[in-house]
Amino acid sequence: MRALAEDGAGEAAAQAGRRRRAALWAHGWLALGVLVFALPIWITLVGSTHDAGTIGRGEVPLLPGSHAVENYATAWAEGGGRFRTTAAAAMLWNSALMALLIAAGKIAISLLSAYAVVFFSFPGRMAFFWMIFVTLMLPVEVRIIPTFQVMVDLSLINTMAGLVVPLVASATATLLFRQFFLTIPDEYVEAAKMDGAGPLRFFRDVVVPLSVTNIAALFVILFIYGWNQYLWPLLVVNDRSLETIVVGLSKMIGTGDAQNEWNTIMATAVLAMLPPVAVVVLMQRWFVRGLTETEK
């Protein structure tokens, strides 16, 4: 009996050792992945605290410098680069407004279109849905020339509406909301009819409250989508007062032998990262619930 007990204890110890080694191996790879991801961000953050000469000499400092306040103040109020761009404060406002309008517009239109497809019966209902779905195969880059011509005809070039309107429709969000609405029990619809609730009241009092977590999750994704837009704002806006932070950053970096003010550029890059990071951090709980929650 003692020998069996000793054998069992030895096997348990061996298994515990293997689990510890597996855990250390997994955590080591995870730590390496975090390091690879975080190192460029750290270098950008540190570079934004040094003077232009330090970065211009090709040095890659790993510790913060003493010029942080000066660099961030210059980027915030004046801009930077070989050709002075728009101040970061104005570009951040333009990007935030564009991203918010795109996210809100996509969610509103997708909610209504998915609601109509799921809860209404009309001729060609599925045909309209598949027409929406097919647009997933046509990204902005494919339809950019006719879209630009439409904006020209509507006199929406160099306007916030021209930035937002072509990017508002979303087949992806419509598809996701449709799939969620299909899981709403039919008993809810029957109960609403018995209470005398019309389609708009059922949408407002039942469907939208049930969709809050999904809306929050999609808002995070769509806000970042709008924030990161580059090609369309670059094409449709020439007015520097409407310049977005992503486009402004690219214009701050000169070409050829241009002397770049890397300290100001890095400070602007750090400022550009803060709003989407804040949205993800503040809405993380809702984002996870929206992706994982299925109970009604």
TrEMBL record:
Quaternary structure and partners: The complex is composed of two ATP-binding proteins (UgpC), two transmembrane proteins (UgpA and UgpE) and a solute-binding protein (UgpB).
Transmembrane domains' residue ranges: 24-43, 96-120, 127-145, 157-181, 202-227, 265-288
Protein name: sn-glycerol-3-phosphate transport system permease protein UgpE
Gene3D superfamilies per record: MetI-like (1.10.3720.10)
Subcellular compartments: Cell inner membrane; Cell membrane
InterPro entries per UniProt: MetI-like (IPR000515), MetI-like_sf (IPR035906)
Function: Part of the ABC transporter complex UgpBAEC involved in sn-glycerol-3-phosphate (G3P) import. Probably responsible for the translocation of the substrate across the membrane.
Any Pfam family: BPD_transp_1
Keyword field: Cell inner membrane, Cell membrane, Membrane, Transmembrane, Transmembrane helix, Transport
Recorded topology in the membrane: Multi-pass membrane protein
Similarity comment: family membership: Belongs to the binding-protein-dependent transport system permease family.
Name of the gene this protein is made from: ugpE
Domain of life (superkingdom): Bacteria
Chief location category: membrane
